């Protein structure tokens, strides 16, 4: 079992809904990441937090809004998503920005 | 621009038939090269980090090696449970520690 926990595992939402994805780790890691992965493609970086501060935003549309309330928790708030946003959303964490990243099992998101 | 190319795209082996997966990279200053294993519907699982040419790491039936232009993941006497997609990723000094640039992966299927 992975030490990075993501909830929910599956999410189906309409284009006008607001929902949030949650990621939690208790390994004392100070860097956390959001990735998007489409079928048969590698993960694409979306956001990076280091010591609870946003370090990288890879030109992600504003309908995705990240939040890092504390060093163990990372949220991704979703609003007015498009069908092309359907994908597996992966969270990862690492001790710091130089160390290997450890991934959760993702949230499978479907936009109707 | 940093690039990572993995070959082959797919590989089918018989149980016990050893082989190698290739990861070629072009980066402006390699900080680290990472190997991950990803099972369907799961997040990538960290396997190895390699930092300098000549370095080797081993874990069970897997051995990763690194040169100045490429990395190999050698699989010795594979078993069906080794079936997965193997992803290679690089971290470059010029793009910052945060960013992992992934290859498109090699899908490995090991038949009994």
In short:
By secondary structure, chain A is mainly β. Chain A has strands at residues 4-7, 10-13, 18-25, 31-37, 44-50, 53-57, 64-70, 73-79, 87-94, 102-103, 107-111.
In words, what does this structure look like?
The complex is a heterodimer of chains A (about 110) and B (about 110). Chain A is mainly beta and about 110 residues long. Helices cover about 0% and strands about 55% of the residues of chain A. Chain B is globular, with a radius of gyration of 14 Å. Chain B contains no helices and eleven strands. The interface of A and B includes residues 4, 31, 101, 102 and 105 of A.
Mean pLDDT of chain B: 94
Write down the overall mean pLDDT of chain A. Answer: 94
* Estimated share of beta-strand residues of chain B: over 45%
How many strands, what sense, and barrel or not for the largest sheet of chain A?
A: 7 strands, mixed
Which terms would index this structure?
heterodimer, A: 112 residues, mainly beta, 7-stranded mixed β-sheet, 4-stranded antiparallel β-sheet, B: 112 residues, 6-stranded mixed β-sheet, 5-stranded antiparallel β-sheet, 11 strands, 0% helix, globular
Set down the secondary structure blueprint:
The complex is a heterodimer of chains A (112) and B (112).
Chain A: E1 4-7, E2 10-13, E3 18-25, E4 31-37, E5 44-50, E6 53-57, E7 64-70, E8 73-79, E9 87-94, E10 102-103, E11 107-111
Parallel strand pairs in A: 2-11
Antiparallel strand pairs in A: 1-3, 3-8, 4-5, 4-9, 5-6, 7-8, 9-10, 9-11
Chain B: E1 3-7, E2 10-14, E3 19-26, E4 30-38, E5 45-50, E6 56-59, E7 62-66, E8 70-75, E9 84-92, E10 101-102, E11 106-111
Parallel strand pairs in B: 2-11
Antiparallel strand pairs in B: 1-3, 3-8, 4-5, 4-9, 6-7, 7-8, 9-10, 9-11
């Amino acid at each position: 079992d992975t030490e990075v926990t993501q909830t929910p595992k599956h999410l189906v939402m309409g284009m006008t809904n607001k929902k949030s994805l949650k990621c939690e780790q208790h390994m004392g890691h100070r860097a956390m990441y959001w990735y998007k992965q489409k079928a048969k493609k590698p993960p694409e970086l979306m956001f990076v937090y280091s010591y609870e501060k946003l370090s990288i935003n890879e030109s992600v549309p504003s309908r995705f809004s990240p939040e890092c309330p504390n060093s163990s928790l990372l949220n991704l708030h979703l609003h007015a998503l498009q069908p092309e946003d359907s994908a597996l959303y992966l969270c990862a964490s690492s001790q710091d920005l130089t160390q290997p990243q450890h991934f959760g099992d993702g949230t499978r998101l479907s936009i109707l | 621009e940093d690039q990572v190319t993995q070959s082959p795209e797919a590989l089918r082996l018989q149980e016990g038939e050893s082989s190698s997966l290739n990861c070629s990279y072009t980066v402006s200053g390699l900080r680290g090269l990472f190997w991950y294993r990803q099972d369907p519907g799961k997040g990538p699982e960290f396997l190895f980090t390699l930092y300098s040419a000549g370095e080797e790491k081993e874990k069970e039936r897997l051995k990763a090696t690194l040169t100045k232009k490429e990395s190999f993941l050698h699989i010795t006497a594979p078993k069906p449970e080794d079936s997965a997609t193997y992803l290679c990723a690089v971290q470059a000094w010029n793009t910052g520690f945060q960013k992992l640039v992934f290859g498109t992966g090699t899908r490995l299927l090991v038949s009994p």
